[in-house]
Write the structure tokens for this entry.
Amino acid sequence: MIKLNAKELRTTEVNPLIAASIRKNPITIVCDNVLDTYNVGSIFRLADAVAAEKVVLCGATLTPPNSRIKKASINTTGWVNWEYAPSAKEALEQLTSNNEQLTIVAVEQDKRSKPFYKVTYTFPLAIVVGNETTGVTQEVLDMADMIVEMPMWGINTSLNVMVSAGIILYEIMKQHTS
């Protein structure tokens, strides 16, 4: 395992040979109009951490190159495969047309949602996270095979999109590496 200090993390040059040798997990992270560039950059870090196949940035989500995304991602935008789609619905239609076995998991508070830790996740899967204010779009919720949420026991009613994505992605990895 490579351990880098803060300066080394921010100056890591992408090495295509190393990038090609990393075994990817069949996970696609779909950002449905995620507006905060720091959330987007952090999602790239999460995608790298769990070796996700790719990130799909949709709608109003900004894309690299972007200095704030790059800073928050600590250069992982160069290591993580990503693409842009005009909408999350279009992205998911394309993903499912290429892979009929794909499970779509939306992260959202909804009457149909289940606590994230009470669900069995099967590969391949697409995890959809939504806009910081309005959440995952209704058309995407209607396409989802399952909707999961973060139970909230305090006063606040939700967690940051990147925090929720991280918790759920690590639950998925726990289930698949145990």
The two ends are 19 Å apart (CA to CA). The chain has seven helices and seven strands.
